[in-house]
């Protein structure tokens, strides 16, 4: 399991070898930079999203090959509705195109689709594409390809608090019995079970912020910020991010690994 690292100080490509026993189980990616990638090429922003969709295909396959258990991709946030209508419409059509063409390959790679977010607010066609993909891949037991679609972490936490408050009001739960696990179990990542918290969060395009993504779940995640825009992200760059992760010392608040 190796790749070439190109951006080291010597300027010479360096061969990197991953530790197969320390592959992050849950990798979450903030796929940023589609618009800038397009603008640099004098293309409309949506051309960046289209190319970004192709990158999703490449990285899904690469992540599955690496043995990653859950790949969460931030595809559309609860704040992205503020973008121009044409762009929003295009982004809503992408899952339709993606699943129309890619589900057979997902199945042949044993990849199961999951979607987290306020999906009931998506256009009906998008909802159907998503529901069909979930259904068609439900027997796959390899990697979970988890799309965050109309997802926002503050909204997610707010919904969880409302649900927990209701349980208290109905006498099913005592306030003193509310634990961190209670909260986790009300979040949209709960169906991911033991893999609900990302081990590593990657953000492309050089921006270094979280943008309302998995705020509760990233308490002990490692962060890898990378300069390339999402449409130019590659399997080699994913390997590089995993390599970087493998050289971090995770202490979870303690003193040793
Ligand atoms: C951020 O780039 C990207 C998005 C808001 C959309 C991400 C969506 C995809 C990569 C395609 C998803 C594919 C499927 C199958 C759902 P930006 O537009 O904010 O880039 P900028 O910061 O350069 O403007």
Description:
It is a single chain. Helix 2 packs parallel to helix 3. The chain is globular, with a radius of gyration of 19 Å. It is α/β, with parallel strands linked by helices. It is built from seven helices and eight strands. The mean pLDDT is 95. Farnesyl diphosphate binds next to helix 1, helix 2 and helix 3. The site of farnesyl diphosphate (FPP) has 18 residues, from helix 1, helix 2 and helix 3. Catalyzes the condensation of isopentenyl diphosphate (IPP) with allylic pyrophosphates generating different type of terpenoids. Keywords: Magnesium, Metal-binding, Transferase. Its EC number is 2.5.1.-. It holds the Pfam family Prenyltransf.
Brief summary of the model shown:
The chain has 257 residues and is an alpha/beta fold. The strands form two sheets. It has a six-stranded parallel sheet, sandwiched between helices.
List strands and helices in order, with pairings.
Elements: E1 2-5, E2 14-17, E3 26-30, H1 34-40, H2 45-66, E4 70-77, H3 85-108, E5 112-116, H4 124-136, E6 144-151, H5 153-169, H6 180-185, E7 200-203, E8 222-225, H7 235-246
Parallel strand pairs: 3-4, 3-7, 4-6, 5-6, 7-8
Antiparallel strand pairs: 1-2
Helix pairs in contact: 1-2, 2-3, 3-4
Farnesyl diphosphate is lined by residues 31-36, 49, 52-53, 56, 75, 80, 91, 94-95, 98, 147, 230.
């Amino acid at each position: 399991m190796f790749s070439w690292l190109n951006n080291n100080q010597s300027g010479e490509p360096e061969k990197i070898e991953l530790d197969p026993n320390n592959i992050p189980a849950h990798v979450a990616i903030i796929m940023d930079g589609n618009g800038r990638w397009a603008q640099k090429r004098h293309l409309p922003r949506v051309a960046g999203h289209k190319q970004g969709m192709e990158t999703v295909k490449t990285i899904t396959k690469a992540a599955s090959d690496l043995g990653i258990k859950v790949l969460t991709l931030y595809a559309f946030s609860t704040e992205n509705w503020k973008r121009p209508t044409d762009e929003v419409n295009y982004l809503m059509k992408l899952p339709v195109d993606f699943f129309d063409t890619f589900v057979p390959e997902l199945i042949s790679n044993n990849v199961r689709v999951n979607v987290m977010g306020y999906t009931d607010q998506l256009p009906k066609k998008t909802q159907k594409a998503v529901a069909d993909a979930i259904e068609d891949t439900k027997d796959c037991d390899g990697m979970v390809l988890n799309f965050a679609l109309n997802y926002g972490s503050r909204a997610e936490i707010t919904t969880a608090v409302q649900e927990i408050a209701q349980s208290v009001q109905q006498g099913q739960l005592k306030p003193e019995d509310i634990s961190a696990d209670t909260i986790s179990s009300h979040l949209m990542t709960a169906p991911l079970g033991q893999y609900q918290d990302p081990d590593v969060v990657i953000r492309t395009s050089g921006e270094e912020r979280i943008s309302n993504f998995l705020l509760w779940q990233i308490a002990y995640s490692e962060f890898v910020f990378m300069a390339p825009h999402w449409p130019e992200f590659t399997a080699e760059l994913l390997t590089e991010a995993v390599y970087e992760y493998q050289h971090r010392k995770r202490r979870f608040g303690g003193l040793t690994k």
